[in-house]
Specification:
Elements: H1 22-25, H2 30-43, E1 48-50, E2 60-64, H3 73-77, E3 81-92, E4 96-101, E5 109-116, E6 118-124, E7 130-136, H4 137-150, H5 155-158, E8 166-167, H6 168-174
Antiparallel strand pairs: 1-2, 2-3, 3-6, 4-5, 5-8, 6-7
Amino acid sequence: MIFPRTQFGDPILRKKAKRVPLAVVKKSGFPKLIADMFHTMRRADGVGLAAPQIGLPLQLAVIEAGPQRAKSKSQRARNERIVVINPKLLRASKEKSYDWEGCLSLDGVRGKVPRHKTITVRYTDERGVARTRTVSGFLARVFQHEIDHLNGKLYVDRMENMETLSTLGEFRKRKK
Ligand code: NI
């Protein structure tokens, strides 16, 4: 199924999400929830989706992205599908990069956001296995965006100012 998405203004997007107990990961309905989150994300042309965006206040997000931003749907479909549960940022590079971001909870707008170039994150995967990995580039950006969602933060909070905040039409003119 495709979940309805929460939009900015909904208080759920501003709350810290609750940790997912391991028992929930082991439940029979969990793979279906994950599959539906990926469906919802893909249908909306997104590269990440966090549970608060479908009205669930849980520390859970799905990501489909690589170190480079995919230029087409088929490129994106070849990217790794990552399920992130109860993530914790362990390290972040001082060096930052600026790039455009959108969000499935801020329909119709884009903005340029600074993010750490490389991060090390610890999380639990969809099988309940603890993972620690270091990611860079666009994938690191998506991880930071999704982890922010689980802490009640939106990308506009990370922008240094609102000068680049753009409608989709203006973004398309200026993205190069
Ligand atoms: Ni988002």
